[in-house]
Design brief:
Elements lengths: L1 E8 L5 E3 L3 H26 L6 H5 L2 E3 L6 E4 L2 E4 L4 E7 L6 H8 L3 E5 L4 E12 L11 E8 L6 E3 L5 E3 L5 H18 L2 H6 L3 E6 L5 E7 L7 E7 L1 E8 H10 L12 E4 L1
Antiparallel strand pairs: 1-6, 1-8, 2-5, 3-6, 4-5, 7-8, 9-15, 9-16, 10-11, 12-15, 13-14
Length: 265
């Protein structure tokens, strides 16, 4: 499921880190953690308790922050009094109103050691699913585009990732491998290993664009990752598995705001 959050800054001047993804992810996690007990009750009362449901609850991705800004060093100075953010969760549709209510009127802080901006979630809009016309196990072909940088990586001998560019044939292969892992998490290994999954990178009119993002900037856990934009993905798979991709994101670091997708219809 997918939601559009409209954010209004509490103060007239708002300055946020250029690496705002981790602070937003932390804010979302806090809201989720506060709701864990309530969500458990919701599932129990509505009869939707399933194996791995809490893990699925934390399968999410979110888009780039949509607002006008001016770059000032490692900061972004917002030029308007409104920002938008899309958040996607892999959850039963029955949880839609619960999640919508969870975010309404919440305060969302985007901060690090140098600056802090406080936003109020002014509205939460449920966005229609793009695959409603298909049956759950129907094989579909659809085009997707990233709403945030896509990170594809191969583990190396140092225990880190070697990040791949979209023109590298291993880029799409890595995304499919990660997709199968998500299917294994939400369904089982049998589905994951036997599922028909295909993915092709479709270049856009503009050149591929990379972005170096710092996670946990200025801390001992600081990590730099490289994501890519300005391309599309043509994917083939069962509707339920493509829906998982749309809900949870593609590639790695999804809960850090990487690999958020939308369907091109």
């Amino acid at each position: 499921m997918r939601f559009r959050l409209t954010l209004t800054p509490v103060f007239r001047e708002s300055i946020i880190p250029i690496n705002y993804q981790y602070p937003i992810s932390s804010a979302i996690y806090k809201i989720i953690q506060q709701a864990d007990s309530a969500y458990a009750s919701f599932l129990h009362e509505k009869g939707y308790q399933q194996k791995g449901s809490f893990k699925s609850f934390k399968l999410f991705s979110f888009s780039d922050l949509r607002t006008a800004f001016k770059i000032e060093g490692d900061r972004l100075r917002l030029l308007t009094q409104q920002a938008e953010l899309e958040i996607c969760f892999h959850l039963p549709q029955a949880a839609e109103n619960f999640i919508k209510g969870l975010f309404m009127q919440q305060q969302l802080n985007i901060a690090d050691k140098k600056s802090k901006a406080v936003f109020l979630v002014q509205s939460v809009e449920s966005l229609p699913g793009a695959l409603q016309q298909y049956k759950p196990q129907e094989i579909i072909n659809i085009s997707l585009k990233p709403l945030s940088p896509v990170v594809a990586g191969l583990p190396n001998e140092k225990g880190n990732y070697t990040f791949l560019a979209p023109e590298d044939i291993r880029f799409a292969e890595s995304l499919v491998y990660n997709w199968r892992n998500k299917i294994a998490t939400c369904y089982d290994e049998r589905f994951a290993s036997s599922a028909l999954l295909m993915m092709e990178v479709i270049p856009a009119k503009l050149p591929f664009k990379s972005r170096l993002i710092t996670i946990k900037a200025g801390t001992p856990e600081e990590t730099k990752i490289r994501g890519w934009m300005n391309f599309g993905l043509k994917v083939t798979g069962e509707k339920r598995f493509v829906e998982l991709l749309l809900n949870a994101g593609t590639g790695i670091y999804n809960s850090q705001g990487m690999g958020c997708l939308e369907a091109i219809v």
